Amino acid sequence: MIVAIHQPEHLPWLGFFNKMMNADKLVILDNVQYRKRYFQNRNQILVNGEKKYIGVPVNIDNYREKTIADMQIYSDSEVPWKNKYLKTIEYNYKHHPFFEEYFPFFENLLGEDIASLYEFNMEIIRYFAQKLGIDTKIVKASELFPSGEKSDLILDIAKKSSADVYLSGPSGRDYMDLEKYEKERMGVWFNDFEHPIYMQKGTEQFIPYLSTLDLLMNIGEKQGRSILSDGTVITKMI
């Protein structure tokens, strides 16, 4: 059982789905503190041929005391944002090969009254995963009632997820106590994703580290899955 753990980012990049693809189970870290000006409510797409953020406005009152699951999106009547969000995608991707296939999803999504940032992000994550043919089981960390912080928290989640192997992102090297994982007889692998290059409309030179939206709009899901898989680099530590 290979288990990956990741926060529910907004419009995640390719590395998120590559790690998900290489795991049997993905635990969504919904119970950690919300981080302001990070990828939890925004991500980057191409805007006029340049890397720019697109995001949703969230109520940040007392955000240091809230988890990601607690965060609420402003309604369009409070902070008008939906039209700008859709127009940003439409204006910058309407001439891309697969715009007509994927844009209606966002029209429908923003037509719904979703107040939870977690639920909003998960709708996109599930949609992208489904389109890329990724059927990895998704579990909420909060439902596992984990304890500890940082490396200990991740280890407890992995144990409660029945993991034989914990599949970490490369940044795990900075804080994980590998001796504790070894004592628990749990393998640790690092998903050292190497960003692939694909045909990208509207740029003179390929721009990496964008939302997976860019991949889908440019090359679609069938070729997109193959490109995504090409970036797989697994380093087995334990």
Shape: globular
**Biggest sheet: strands side by side, in what order?**
5-2-1-6-7-8
How many helices does DSSP assign? 7
> What fraction, in percent, of the residue positions are helical?
25-40%
Structural class by secondary-structure content: alpha/beta
Low-confidence stretches: none
Average residue pLDDT: 97
Largest sheet: 6 strands, mixed
**Termini Cα gap:** 15 Å
User: H/E order of the elements?
Assistant: EHEEEHHHEHEHEHE
Radius of gyration: 18 Å
- State the domain count: 1
Percent strand: 15-25%
Number of strands: 8
How would you characterize this protein structure?
- The structure is a single chain.
- α1 (14-21) links the parallel β1 and β2.
- It is globular and about 55 Å long.
- The two termini are 15 Å apart.
- The protein has seven helices and eight strands.
- It has 238 residues and is an alpha/beta fold.
- The model has no long low-confidence stretch (mean pLDDT 97).
- 35% of the residues lie in helices and 16% in strands.
- Strands 5-2-1-6-7-8 form a six-stranded mixed beta sheet, sandwiched between helices. A two-stranded antiparallel ribbon has the order 3-4.
- The protein has one domain (2-236).
Please give the structural blueprint.
Blueprint: E1 2-6, H1 14-21, E2 25-28, E3 42-47, E4 50-55, H2 82-93, H3 99-111, H4 117-131, E5 137-140, H5 150-160, E6 165-168, H6 178-183, E7 187-191, H7 212-230, E8 234-236
Parallel strand pairs: 1-2, 1-6, 2-5, 6-7
Antiparallel strand pairs: 3-4, 7-8
Helix pairs in contact: 1-7, 2-3
Summarize the structure.
This protein is an alpha/beta fold and 238 residues long. The protein is 35% helix and 16% strand. The chain has one domain (2-236).
